[in-house]
């Protein structure tokens, strides 16, 4: 059998996403759910990027009371809590893959690296990609493309981009260096250790750096059993990636030799359990969009008319020399919690059909030092994917969505449980005009179920929440009313003057967005492992019932027994004079907590 060329496969799609980190996953899923035929191209055998089992970085995001990112990211993380309570990264990998594979309109290509583009003027016509496992050469034709690769691989299209740090004077950024340079934040490899009952000797591999024992060594405990090592910011974190990886390995084995064999004995009963091979990247290439987000935008809270997402992580600026820098490895410049991010930073200034989401959005180095965290990247991805679906629907360019459909984009995102600060979700006329009542209320009127605010908002939202305030267990009494409270078995009801066609019932339950950390996988493992439980305030069982004529019997549309999601939609497709929600059981709380109940 002779074979002179590899198998050629052509796929036609509305939307092609390159990069399967959290931004790419959320972009692809969002577009597919809104009707766009989508292809997701990922160059690794798993999804998640820096959050995958290859790198094992936790998903950080906005820091603050009630600022946890929701939408598709929250959906994935709650599913992980349900099926992966021990927080195992190898299970997380499969949860992510299955989550993507079961989405309609979405084709996933793993182990598939983009190796070129085909252009039609200022538009990308196709992406070419090589799949290592099947030895197939793919050509993916699409109307729109999104670069969620982190490394901005689609810059070969001729898209404008920036690398390195801007000069302080260019955007009048006080934290930027005086002179522009090509330096970035570095790459990291994580190391995890485990506690042992006896001392097990360790001898470093021959390539390891040898460090002298001096000064203080970080103590090791069964709870705090991971380190990360960073370097490469003074090199090119893409072109020099292999060299940087080798240097990280030399440092890690040298540091562990120093720690394990220290005369202080801090790691005597520990041994290495896992060392990453693929470095996680923080920074390299940033695209140029119609708006470049800056330090000043962040500090002014980013109250853009086209706000589609938010950040709330500090401007966490790592020194380019990283491990070899004698001073503090990072400076946490304050940032408001939250601040808005504009849609115009998610599409290319000069390539007519290119979106991007993740750490490569249109932002300066200083702004990117905050927006780069994965929780923020995920909601940026959902915004880009939703915009792409609207662009397909209306035959508009990414810029055309800004010019003609930005309000619809914002409303769609909020309907999909993506919070946009200082915005209230729009209610349907059916919801607004109905009479809303409840059998039991604990001092909060049921009107909060249709006020368009699906999380607690601090009364001083326009002011930065201090670290001291974050460290306190702030009670609900200090927040504006944001959820309805009732007893199990008691109904919340909408009633109409005449029969109305109800398409669906939409609920937002309380999944505890007050705490950003409970749903993420951690870098460290306690000695006895993790045992994570779903938020106790989340509704587990509930029923939806309708009444077709006044005074008639209630008919059950759905009874859900094992809900573990925050946003739930129940198809109805019936005419009725009333519809009601009856919460029956939670995952542990003694009352029923509901953010929203509305109908379409």
Q: Mind explaining what this structure looks like?
A:
- The strands form six sheets. Strands 1, 2, 3, 4, 5, 6 and 17 form a seven-stranded mixed sheet that branches. Strands 18, 19, 20, 21, 22, 23 and 24 form a seven-stranded antiparallel sheet that branches.
- The longest helix is centred in the middle third of the chain and has 21 residues, at 374-394.
- The protein is built from twelve helices and 24 strands.
- The protein starts with 6 loop residues before the first strand and ends with a strand.
- It is globular and about 80 Å long.
- It is of the alpha+beta class.
- It has helices at 22-33, 71-83, 89-101, 168-171, 241-260, 295-299, 365-371, 374-394, 398-404, 406-415, 429-433, 467-471; strands spanning 7-18, 38-41, 106-109, 112-120, 123-131, 136-147, 161-163, 187-195, 226-231, 270-275, 280-281, 285-287, 307-311, 315-318, 330-333, 339-342, 354-356, 435-438, 484-486, 492-509, 539-547, 554-560, 567-586, 592-599.
- Mean pLDDT is 92; it is low at 460-479.
- Strand 5 and strand 6 form a beta hairpin.
Query: What is the number of helices?
Result: 12
Outline the biggest β-sheet. Answer: 7 strands, mixed
Helix content: 10-25%
User: Uncertain runs with pLDDT below 50, 5 residues or more?
Assistant: 460-479
The backbone outline, from C-alpha atoms, is: globular
Mean pLDDT: 92
| End-to-end CA span | 60 Å
Number of strands: 24
- Rounded to an integer, what's the Rg over CA atoms? 25 Å
Given helix and strand content, the structural type is alpha+beta
Determine the strand fraction and express it as a percent band.
Answer: 25-35%
């Amino acid at each position: 059998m002779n074979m002179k060329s590899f198998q050629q496969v052509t796929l036609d799609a509305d939307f092609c996403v390159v990069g399967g980190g959290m931004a790419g996953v959320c972009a692809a899923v969002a577009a597919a759910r809104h009707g766009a035929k989508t292809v997701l191209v990922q160059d690794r055998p798993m999804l998640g990027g820096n959050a995958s089992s290859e790198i094992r970085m936790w998903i950080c995001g906005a820091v603050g009371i009630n600022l946890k990112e929701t939408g598709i990211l929250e959906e994935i993380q709650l599913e992980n809590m349900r099926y992966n309570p021990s927080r195992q990264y190898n299970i997380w990998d499969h949860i992510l893959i299955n989550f993507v594979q079961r989405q309609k309109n979405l084709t996933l290509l793993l182990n598939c690296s983009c190796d070129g583009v085909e252009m039609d003027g200022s538009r990308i016509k196709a992406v070419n990609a090589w799949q290592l496992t099947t030895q197939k050469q793919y050509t993916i034709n699409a109307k729109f493309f999104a670069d969620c690769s982190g490394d901005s691989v689609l810059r070969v299209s001729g898209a404008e981009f920036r690398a390195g740090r801007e000069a302080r004077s260019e955007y009048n950024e006080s934290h930027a260096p005086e002179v522009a340079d090509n330096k970035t934040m570095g790459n990291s490899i994580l190391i995890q250790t485990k506690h042992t009952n006896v001392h097990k000797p360790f001898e470093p591999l021959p390539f390891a750096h040898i460090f002298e024992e001096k000064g203080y060594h970080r103590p090791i405990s069964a709870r705090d059993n991971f380190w990360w090592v960073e370097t490469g910011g003074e090199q090119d974190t893409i072109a020099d990636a292999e060299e940087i990886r080798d240097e990280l390995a030399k440092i890690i084995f040298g540091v562990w030799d120093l720690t394990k064999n220290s005369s202080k004995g801090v790691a005597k009963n520990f041994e290495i359990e896992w060392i990453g091979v693929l470095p996680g990247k923080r920074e390299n290439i940033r695209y140029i969009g119609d708006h470049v987000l800056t330090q000043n935008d962040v500090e002014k809270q980013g109250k853009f008319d086209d706000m589609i997402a938010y950040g709330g992580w500090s401007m966490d600026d790592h020194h380019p020399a990283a491990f070899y820098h004698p001073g503090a490895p990072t400076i946490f410049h304050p940032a408001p919690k939250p601040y808005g991010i504009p849609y115009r930073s998610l599409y290319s200034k000069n390539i007519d059909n290119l979106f991007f989401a993740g750490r490569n959005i249109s932002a300066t180095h200083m702004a990117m030092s905050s927006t780069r965290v994965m929780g923020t990247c995920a909601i940026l991805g959902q915004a880009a994917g939703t915009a792409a679906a609207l662009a397909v629907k209306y035959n508009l360019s990414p810029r055309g969505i800004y010019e003609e459909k930005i309000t619809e984009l914002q409303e769609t995102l909020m309907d999909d449980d993506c919070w946009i600060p200082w915005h209230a979700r729009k209610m349907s006329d059916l919801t607004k005009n109905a009479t809303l009542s409840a059998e039991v209320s604990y001092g909060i009127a049921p009107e909060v179920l249709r006020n368009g605010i699906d999380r607690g908002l601090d009364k001083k939202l326009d002011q930065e929440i201090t670290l001291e305030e974050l460290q306190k267990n702030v009670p609900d009494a200090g927040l504006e009313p944001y959820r309805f409270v009732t007893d199990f078995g008691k109904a919340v009801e909408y009633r109409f003057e005449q029969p109305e066609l109800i398409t669906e019932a939409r609920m937002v339950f309380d999944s505890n967005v007050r705490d950003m950390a409970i749903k993420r996988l951690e870098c460290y493992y306690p000695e006895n492992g993790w045992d994570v439980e779903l938020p106790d305030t989340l509704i587990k069982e509930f029923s939806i019932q309708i009444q077709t004529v006044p005074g008639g019997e209630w008919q059950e549309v759905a009874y859900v027994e094992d809900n573990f999601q925050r946003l739930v939609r129940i198809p109805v497709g019936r005419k009725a004079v009333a519809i009601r929600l009856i919460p029956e059981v939670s995952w542990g709380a003694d009352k029923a907590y509901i953010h929203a109940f509305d109908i379409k």
